[in-house]
Specification:
The chain is mainly α and 344 residues long. Helix content is 60%, strand content 0%. The relative contact order is 0.11.
Length: 344
């Protein structure tokens, strides 16, 4: 069955996120070819572009530059994201989008540099390890080993890891519901993907897809900085990398949890407790899909899942609630593993 454009965009966003992590999971979809820009996409971009709020303009900048990469640059407003960041210095999502954007989208150049743009969210949330990832990427690109050490030390001392996936999903959903699909668009999308879900659930899917595409940072500099086969200083950074891995292992997205355990494995620091935490996370992912495999055709199930995601701010907890509703098993069976799913 061929999925509609929203699902292909979702797969693209998640595929990019897994690829950036330097990981390969069976559940990670391969990035598909880009779907054509729909009239709905253009209406949404027009709404955001005409909005007066800095967050609207920041989201429009991310969207319009994405469209430009697909061959339609007419909506791009030079410097839009940079101005939005200047107008909303305390808006964590705006600062996150600005910190993670490429220089063109951010409105920065050699002639008009953006000093310390990578620190935009870290200045607001120094306790958030994710907020330091843009600074780590900048230091890595500049081959500044001392700065990499400094950033890793800050990340190791952080008490949480939040890449604003839920915040971004909420923001995109709020925009999506203001530009509902027309009856003809909805009918065409249902026919394209065999869907029975309603317009609201499609808005949820689109919001999650955009959050995956626009809000997820690159993990590769972290992986490279901590691997002895990729960086000569990695051995000296082991303690910091170990602490970072455990912060990620307790984070709010499944991708970050899995990256955290993978990082601990790669540096030889994974403990039995770490392995059990990773096993439980993988079980929750697997079991939630088993008890509710048809969220793309079950509007109510998707609405409840998104409501749980917003309420808990945690993908893991939202999946646990999904399992309970489906009368599944929250705790993995003794001996269960991804390689031996049938063991009880």
């Amino acid at each position: 069955m061929r999925r509609p454009a929203i699902f292909r965009l979702a797969a693209l966003g998640l595929g990019v996120a897994f690829s950036a992590a330097g990981l390969s999971f069976a559940s990670a979809p391969a990035p598909p070819s880009l779907p054509p820009i729909s009239s709905h996409e253009l209406r949404l971009a027009e709404l955001l572009g005409s909005g007066g709020l800095p967050r609207d303009r920041a989201m429009h900048a991310s969207m319009s530059h994405f469209h430009a990469q697909m061959g339609d640059a007419h909506g791009v407003i030079p410097g839009e994201l940079r101005q939005a960041a200047a107008d909303a210095p305390r808006d964590r999502l705006v600062q996150w989008l600005w910190a993670n954007a490429d220089d063109v989208t951010a409105g920065c150049s050699t002639d008009t540099p953006c000093a310390d743009r990578a620190m935009a969210l870290a200045r607001l949330e120094p306790h958030n390890a994710a907020a330091w990832l843009p600074a780590l990427s900048t230091a890595s690109r500049g081959r500044d080993a001392d700065r990499v050490d400094q950033v890793l030390a800050h990340m190791a001392g952080a008490s949480s890891y939040d890449e604003l996936f839920v915040d971004s999903s909420e923001a995109w959903y709020a925009a999506e519901v203001l530009v509902p699909l027309s009856p003809s668009e909805l009918a065409a999308m249902r026919a394209d993907g065999g869907m029975t879900a309603n317009g609201e659930s499609l808005a949820v899917y689109a919001a999650i897809a955009r959050a995956a595409a626009f809000a997820m940072p690159s993990f590769q500099p972290l992986v490279d900085a901590c691997r002895v086969d990729r960086d000569p200083r990695a051995a000296a950074r082991r303690a910091d990398c170990e602490r970072i891995g455990r912060v990620l292992l307790g984070s709010g997205t499944m991708l970050s949890r899995r990256l955290g355990f993978s990082l601990l494995q790669r540096i030889g620091a994974a403990t039995p407790a770490d392995a059990e935490a990773a096993r439980r996370a993988r079980w929750v992912w697997t079991e939630s899909m088993r008890v509710s495999p048809s969220m793309d055709t079950d509007a109510d199930a998707l609405r409840r899942y998104f409501s749980d995601l917003v309420a808990t701010r945690d993908e893991f907890q939202a999946m646990e609630r999904r399992i309970v509703r489906g009368r599944g098993r929250v705790e993995p069976p003794i001996g269960w593993s991804v390689d031996k799913p049938g063991i009880q």
